[in-house]
Amino acid sequence: MSTDSSSQSTDPTHDTGDGDDRPNVVVVVMDTARAKETVPAASEHTPTLASLADSGTEFTQAYTSSPWTLPSHVSLFTGLYTAAHGAHGGHTYLDADHETLPEAFQSAGYETVGISNNCWITGEFGFDRGFESFRKGWQYLQSDVDTGAIVRAHGVSERLTALKEQLTAGNPAVTLANVAYERYLCRDNGAERTTQWIDDWLSQRETRGDHRPFFLFCNYIEPHIEYDPPQIYAEQFLSDEELTEAAQLRQDPRAFDVGEYDLTDRECELLRGLYQAELAYVDAQIEVVRKSLQAADQWENTIFVVLGDHGENIGEYGFFGHQYNLHETVVHVPLIITGGPFDDGGKYREYVQLLDLVPTLLDTTEISASALAMQAQGQSFHPDSTATPRQAVYAEHIQPQPTVESLEARFGEIPDRVRAFDRTLRSIRTDGSTYIRGSDGSRWLYLAGDEHHNRRTDRPTLAARLDTQLDGWLGTVERDRTTQTAVDMSAATEQRLADLGYI
């Protein structure tokens, strides 16, 4: 359930009436956006990102702490590494004992609004805490009944059975409206309607006389599998002949992992073209959001953050999707901030982690949230921060999602190479090298710019030093969270996650 702001205390040091001039904060997640296509932002393909980078600050060395959605977003909301917050494939929930960024803004008197188009990021997994309003972007009318089972059913008989079950689970009219929208009217994965809703919400705030500053979180999922961009964007990257060929390609990362099918170099290039088109489409949606903020006379007083929660492999390193590895392609992400102290900041080339946004945004808005500030393991990169720039960044993949057992249940016998994915991975990146360690004893050392040749045996002293450094970092952040608890999710959510390659 969304949190009612009336139950939260407000910061008494700030006026929440007409005189409240504290900055708004907008955090836009381009789900699955990797640095390879977006850093530095190029005006040719992502003109909005390029424009924001020109007027604000582009963080060219931004890294996520986890290669997939759930733990990455928990880190973004809490400022904690995965080893501390404990959300991963075996514990798929944002625990209630963690303070969150939306809760801090709500307690400070902000209007807090969340819109998610990724079914991991919903109240079902604990992400609606602190939000006055939290929306599922794929629904036309908000409902606890998810129509995914109906829309994705195969054949008339299966679809009618699913429809009968869902009609009795909630308001039939609402359910039918959502089925019609998702199956026949929605032209993307929720981006267009999400953008329109934001525009309407901004317009209505003035009408209803709400002068509070706001915290807006939005997740656009279009760059996630399945890549199916609008034609006008796909044509920017692929010819008509290539588009016809690309449309026939199978997009099933888990089947690819177990060797059920393969992708040629050309096929991977075609998929990358579709992926780039999805990025370009979301870039256009972000421009509409910016214009909506300008039309509502809110842009000049808004801290605007655009980031990728994790990256993607599209054939690189023998992977498809963003599971089972910690390569540069899945942890290096875009991050651009405009507004306030970040205007005209140029390129920031030092390391930052996405979880550093928690202390950074608290510093930027001067919100007093002592519990969250003490909890956060990141460090502020506010321009006035006295923190020493990072010399290294870290990432973790605590438990594979889906598990090896679930892969066996779906595909039967699987290759030994895939069985090896049943391990925890942790990594450290410095200016000169990347070191990745597996709980099964596997070790990789890559020198800067080359993640194809393992140099561990060639550079044993460097590998040992980084191993020790990784241990030292882990000792400062790891907390005792050994409980393995997967949420008993609805069948519709399970199907949506399967479509995204997580199950």
Tell me the span between the first and last alpha carbons: 25 Å
Q: Please count the beta strands (DSSP E, at least 2 residues each).
A: 15
Q: What is the domain tally?
A: 1
Question: Which oligomeric form is depicted?
Answer: single chain
Helical percentage: 25-40%
CATH superfamily: Alkaline Phosphatase, subunit A
Quickly name the level 1 CATH class: Alpha Beta
Overall 3D geometry?
Answer: globular
Please state the structural category: alpha/beta
Fold and architecture overview:
The structure is a single chain. This protein has helices at residues 35-38, 47-55, 69-78, 82-85, 101-107, 148-151, 155-167, 172-185, 191-207, 231-234, 240-247, 253-257, 265-295, 328-331, 357-365, 370-375, 404-411, 416-419, 460-477, 491-499, and strands spanning 24-30, 57-63, 111-116, 133-136, 214-220, 302-307, 313-314, 320-321, 332-333, 335-338, 346-353, 393-397, 425-429, 433-438, 443-447. By secondary structure, it is α/β, with parallel strands linked by helices. The chain has a single domain (24-138, 186-499), classed as Alkaline Phosphatase, subunit A, CATH 3.40.720.10. The strands form 3 sheets. Strands 1, 2, 3, 4, 5, 6, 9, 10 and 11 form a 9-stranded mixed β-sheet that branches. The chain starts with 23 loop residues before the first strand and ends with a helix.
Give structural attributes.
Alkaline Phosphatase, subunit A, 4-stranded antiparallel β-sheet, globular, alpha/beta, 20 helices, 15 strands, 9-stranded mixed β-sheet, 503 residues
